Amino acid sequence: MDSSLRHDWNLAEVREIHDQPFNDLIFRAQQLHRRYHRGNAVQLCSLLSIKTGACSEDCGYCSQSAHYASGTAREALMDVDAVVASARAAQEAGASRFCMGAAWRGVKDGEEFDNVCEMIRGITELGMETCVTLGMLDRGQAERLKQAGLKAYNHNIDTSRDYYPEVVSTHSFDERIETLRHIREAGITICSGGIIGMWESVGDRCKMLIELANLPKHPESVPVNALVPIKGTPMADLPAVRPFELARVIACARIMMPASMVRLSAGRRSLSDEAQALCFLAGANSIFYGERLLTTGNAEVDRDRELMAELGIEPLVPVAGHPTPAERDSDSKGVCASEAATAGSNGEGLGNKPGQSSPANAGTNGLTAAEA
Ligand code: SF4
Question: What pLDDT is stored for residue 251 in this prediction?
Answer without folding.
Answer: 98
